[in-house]
Amino acid sequence: MELKTLAKKLIFDTLDDIQPEKLVKEKLKELRVDKKVYVLSIGKAAWKMAKAANDVLDIEYGIVITKYGYSFGNIENFDIFEAGHPLPDENSLSATKFAVEKFSKLSKDDILLVLISGGGSSTFELLQDGLSLDDLKDVTTQLLKSGADIKEINTIRSRLSKVKGGRFLNFVKSKVITLVLSDVLENDLSYIASGPTYETSSTFEDADKIIKKYKLDFNENIINALKKDVKVNKKVDIEHYIIGSIDIACDVLEKKARKYNLNTLVLTTRLDCEAKEAGKFIASIAKSSKLKTPYCIIFGGETVVKVKGSGKGGRNQELCYSAALEIENMKDVVIASVGTDGTDGPTDAAGAIVDGKTISKVRKFSKDPYEFLLNNDTYNALKLSGDLLITGPTGTNLNDIGFILKG
Questions:
Q1: Phi–psi pair at 4, nearest 5 degrees
Q2: What values do phi and psi take at 343, rounded to 5?
Q3: Domains in the chain, ordered, with CATH?
Q4: For residues 341 and 396, is the Cβ–Cβ distance under 8 A?
């Protein structure tokens, strides 16, 4: 099988096997929830998580709040909302307000099942008094362009919110069971979707360090909100369970690779540096690895992009394009990196699959292919080479997966 074809097959086979339905159903059957329950499901995997819960439980009523395009139809007894991501919008605020009003009416005898996946920080939001949606958009835009990682971003966002950092519990009297698909390295519950049901330990001093580190320019309203310490209701009976993570995704990918008789190595599940530097590193392994061919060297994590140019792209595209610059003219090697949620930055691509021919294809349109990397314009470069990978919404979100294939 041609290497790029095999790469696509490995990606799509892995995505098929890490869908939330199986993970949610297995956990709910293990927990043996036999009462009528209410459901709040947020994030990019919200619809599929809610559908799975609805298949196995007697659900009185539920709400799904997910990214635009990530709802796949009606679910009986559910209201479904779509909202902005990565930038929150009016729907993020109105859907969250609706959910808070609904579930604050539950009693101590009820059960609220909260299903959380990455993307919930943007789609599930109720701002502190005195803040506007424009304030939140400004904060989010600055953070996304700064090169801050997800923990730093959510440290800031959680302190601006009435529902993040465990503060959603201030509106709830019922028992809460939270199932989480992690898109955060180390699976820290306070950072996944900014932890609506898990109290953050962050302080204003933590936020201030981030502001100074990335030279962020926030207005007075934002600074005043960051300084507020809001207590979290600790009387709520609550359970948390992480049911999916990048480790599971990489494990599934490795099993798929072995089925094609590839020698495998999971290099890391914690790749968290700048994307372009990660690309150089991955390319250096492709050049020097002594693992017996044919092989598949797997990596997972979540890199960052420090935006300095005016182009279009995402972290997986930047990683792949940076690697492609290093492996130009190499034969029998493919490097892939993809967001398991089907989204990479503000683009329609999930990532890319590159090889030794990628840059030579770009050279037909540009004298200096490196300019695309400098301008953070890897989407357009990879579009020219035909190496973008577009999956559409996948309904799951377990960080990014990637690999080197060598034949």
A1: -65, -35
A2: -125, 135
A3: 3-13+247-406 (3.40.1480.10), 33-244 (3.40.50.10180)
A4: yes
**275 in Cβ contact with 301 (< 8 Å):** no
User: Is residue 230 predicted with pLDDT exceeding 90?
Assistant: no
End-to-end CA distance of the chain: 10
Express each pLDDT in 245-271 by its tens digit.
Answer: 999 999 999 999 999 999 999 999 999
pLDDT score of 36 more than 90: no
Task: Kindly state the DSSP code that residue 194 receives in the 8-state scheme.
Answer: G
Q: Which secondary structure element, helix H or strand E, spans residue 227, and what is its range?
A: helix 220-227
DSSP line for 295-313: EEEEEEE--B----SS---
pLDDT digits (tens, 9 = 90+) for 94-128: 999 999 999 999 999 999 999 999 999 999 999 99
Contacts of 114 (CB under 8 A, 6+ apart): 39, 40, 41, 42, 176, 177, 178, 179, 196, 197
What's the maximum distance between 2 C-alpha atoms anywhere in the chain?
68
Whole-angstrom Cα distance, residue 175 to residue 107?
A: 9
pTM for this one? Answer: 0.91
